[in-house]
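Look at a sample.

——
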Amino acid sequence: MSSSVKSTFVGAIQASASVLLTIFYGVFAGQTKLLSVETGRQISKICIKMFLPALLIVNLGTQIEASNASLYLTILVWALVYNLASIAVGYALTKCFSMPKWFTPAITFNNTTSYPLLLIQSLGSAGVLSALAKSEDDTSDDIIERAKSFFLVCSVVSNMLTFGLGGKLLGVSDEDPVESMDEDLRDRAGQNDHPPTDSQEPDERTSLLPGRLPRYVKKASRHTAQAQHAVWDKLHPRVQRALAYITQFISPPTVGAIIGVVLGFVPPLKKAFFNDSEDGGIFNAWLTVSLKNIGELFVTLQVIVVGIKLAHSLRRMRQGSDSGNLHWLPLSVVVLIRFIIWPVLSILFIRMLFTQTDVLGEDRVLWFTMMLMPAGPPAMKLVAMAEVDDADENDKMSIARVLMTCYAISPLLSIAVVASLKACS
């Protein structure tokens, strides 16, 4: 083994160990009850609904422009292809070997946000990514930011599929989308509840804002929802069904990505939001910086949440009289696909693309990130899917063990990192 391969492998191991230690800190916080499971859920919710959209707005708005838009489109296509291929493989294996319901989501939805983003940061700190530089002027920070933007675009597809197909993949989404959307509009319009009275006692949900402002905000929100519901009722049933189906795939990260793309593509907006103040960046020093500040919270906090959820699974296994039967066949197949098969296939396919065609351009960072996109442990959203599933406690314990096993062996991804770096060199 050459010295360059050894140094790259050591750097990749160090980066993986850094990610694993960050997860361990979350496990420690959960085991010592510094953070509860409910707190972890709330942190995860604000990460997905506020911090990740902010990160997408700033990162994509900074990186994307008309000259490189085709590269981001290629990432979207690649993310869609490998996710749909994983779903097809999952369905086929489930039919042939009677796999549990969670098997298909486990091999489809890998962690495409917090884990790879933190891994990229750690790889940059270890000096491993310097081999991917375009030129001597391409700094480590530039490489990390480009890699983040590529992974974030990939995560948008994963999040859309999770929101739209997650329940169907588990076989638990029986509610008609039109009825669900109609009920949601009625709830927000105040047609399914009674208006609050002024004599209500204050509680933990009582607004801290002074005066009549909270009432005005609620009234405006209710009037908006009533107007939306009035328009909804007039739509043709086929249009209602199409809209209800499309909105299933819409999530806060998707909205953040769209805003980021718009800011990146429109030159006056890009100048106003991302240029220095003296160069016309009137929003940069206050609005953009504030979005960047909360966006940077996403990566570490979401990895900490992974540790909290794993700690909860550990406690449940210890407290239960039966810790659940570990299904070795599903576990082995998930590990095989997530850490071996997909890395090998993606490295070979992406290498063929950039050696035989000009589709991927000349950016080695793009090649490297696309090779790693299908790899890695399953997303922790599988825990939430398991909670809404009708599986018994033994199955839930088995799911927890599968996730803990996959994250415990996640340093195996170092092999894929080294192979990808060598393939791009």
In short: The CA atoms of residues 60 and 261 lie 6 Å apart.
